Amino acid sequence: MMKRPGRVQRVLAGLLWVLPAFFAVFLPQGVMAGSGYAGPYTYTERAQLISEYQGNIQVNRLELERVKNNRIWLETKIQKIQDRYTPVPCALVKSLELAKFRMEALDKDIARLKDKLQILGAGEYPVEKGGISPLSPAGSISEVPLEDHHGAGSAGLNFSNASSTSASSTSVLASSGPSPAEKQQRFRDDLARDLKSAGLDDWFELTRGDGCSRLINRLPILFATAEATVAHEYKDLLKKLAGFLADRDVKILVDGYADIRSINTKKYPSNFELGADRAANVVHELEKFGIKPSVFQVGTTGRYRFAAKGMSRAKGLERRVDLAVVFSH
After folding, report:
1. Which of 30, 128, 269, 283 has the fewest Cβ atoms within 10 angstroms?
2. pTM value?
3. Model confidence over 191-209: pLDDT tens digits?
């Protein structure tokens, strides 16, 4: 007589039937196929996410460098005051604490974005020369023209691993268009041409750094003493800038500053509020001319700005707003 299976054997047998169905239903698409998990995204959605994350990392790095410079200036200033055995103003100490907190927050955000890119199978920077594009990870399927038996070109699928690409597919990819580096150079050339056509080349300078193109102001937007209203003569400039940036994928960093004189009014208890209001008013002017609010990042260090010591004799230049535009491409 055959012995009845025990309870443990029956449970294990049931699991053998249930587990395959569970994995087929609940695991993300691509895991069962062994293609590497990149989320339930289409190719286009994945490309957009990668571009967005890479752009945000570059913006954060630019902001991190700015905050780092402010922190260095603050630490130097505090050390000089301490060397004279005089009390350090509370505002300086608070500014230094805020700078440290801001740097930690930016570092965490950069790490978070890099983790997301890693999940999507992409790197921190767009591929500029050679290599494999982050949008075509190893082992992925790419469409390339193949020759049929009659010699006519036809569309086919190439399942070759990216690390062992054949010479024939390499030549096809190389002849398909300009390299990423060439595209970026063309992008910068077009920007420089459009900047001059818009009559903005005297006001703004196009620079390159951290894998992205940036537009920074040569001449600042200045303000009257203890005022945050944007002067009428700058409104035409901001209108031109908004027209130039229309339909472009950008992040705009706006920093407001005050001079070294203290302020303590009902509207502006300190120079921090005054500097922030100046930056915000420039943002509002650009919004009036069609720039989306979501692209702005506003900051202020009040009167404590990096290299402020060298500008202390020109208080009119300290009452200013600086702009930096970061382009995604």
Report:
1. 269
2. 0.48
3. 999 999 999 998 999 987 6
